[in-house]
Structure formats: structure tokens, C-alpha cells
């Protein structure tokens, strides 16, 4: 935990937010930063890319806002092992590229938690919100029927 002299800084999204008390302020509470990261991750996973990026897409375009989000998996069979593996890879790649506050990100498929139309992935990472570095784990549920991701059980 930070000392009284050390402050955690909100993401640029939170600092630009018109919500009272969020404009340009530093935050002393790690819980608020964790909530902001989880909200931003859920928004990232629920954003669909406008176009698919080809294998030769590199550099600035691959890391730009143009490629923000993930591929749409709603029309794919969640019981198919290749689809699950591709989704797992897509989630890890999106988190690595667009959520710099999470480092050493690992995504594992959790077959016991999923159902016929839902998949559950456990995401484990290290939250880097200077001066704090702490482990964070959360379950990511993908509802194939709704095409929606929900984050639950954050620890």
C-alpha cells in the first residue's frame, strides 16, 4: 500500500471524466484504481474491432486506436477447442496491447465454470499503478449468445 505521501494516479479516462472528484486528482485508494482497471478491461473486451487485422499488420496500426477491441466471437461455437484457444489468445493479446497497467498477464480457460453457451477464463496479472504493484485475478465470462463479456470475482 502507498504511504500518505505517495499517490496513485487515475487512468487518463478517469482524469478526463466529468464525474465529481475525478478530474485531474490523484487517488490514494488502491480499490478505486482496481475498479477502474476492471471497468476498462470489460470495456476493451466488449469493443469489437471494425475490421480484422491481417497477419502482416504491424507497427503503429496494430497498436493504434484503430485496432482497439477484439474480434467478434458470437458466431463461433464456444465448445470448439480451437475457438476457445483463439479467444484465450485474443484476450491476452488485447490486454497486453491496450491495458498497460496489467503486466505478466496470463489467461487460462476454466472448463468447470463454463456452460453450454458461456465460457469462463481466469485472468491473472500484476497490477502496476505506481507506486503499487500487486497481483490481481479475475474471472472473465463470455456469453456466446449475447456476445458480451463480464468480469466477476476480482481478487
Account of the protein in words:
It is a single chain. By secondary structure, the chain is α+β, with helices and mostly antiparallel strands. The chain has a single domain, classed as Nuclear Transport Factor 2, Chain: A (Roll). Helix content is 28%, strand content 26%. The strands form two sheets. A four-stranded antiparallel sheet has the order 3-4-5-6, with helices on one face. Strands 1-2 form a two-stranded antiparallel ribbon. The chain is globular and about 40 Å long.
Distinctive features:
155 residues, alpha+beta, Nuclear Transport Factor 2, Chain: A, 4-stranded antiparallel sheet, two-stranded antiparallel sheet, 28% helix, globular, disordered N terminus
Amino acid at each position: 500500500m502507498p504511504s500518505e505521501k505517495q499517490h496513485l494516479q487515475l487512468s487518463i479516462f478517469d482524469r478526463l471524466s466529468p464525474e465529481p472528484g475525478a478530474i485531474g486528482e490523484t487517488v490514494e485508494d488502491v480499490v478505486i484504481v482496481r475498479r477502474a482497471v476492471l471497468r476498462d478491461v470489460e470495456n476493451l473486451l466488449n469493443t469489437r474491432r471494425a475490421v480484422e487485422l491481417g497477419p502482416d499488420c504491424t507497427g503503429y496500426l496494430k497498436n493504434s486506436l484503430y485496432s482497439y477491441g477484439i474480434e467478434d466471437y458470437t458466431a463461433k461455437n464456444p465448445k470448439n477447442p480451437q475457438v476457445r484457444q483463439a479467444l484465450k489468445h485474443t484476450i491476452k493479446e488485447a490486454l497486453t496491447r491496450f491495458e498497460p497497467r496489467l503486466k505478466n498477464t496470463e489467461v487460462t480457460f476454466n472448463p468447470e465454470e463454463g456452460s453450454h453457451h458461456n465460457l469462463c477464463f481466469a485472468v491473472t496479472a500484476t497490477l502496476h499503478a505506481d507506486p503499487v504493484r500487486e497481483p490481481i485475478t479475475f474471472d472473465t465470462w463470455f456469453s456466446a449468445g449475447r456476445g458480451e463479456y463480464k468480469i466477476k470475482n476480482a481478487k
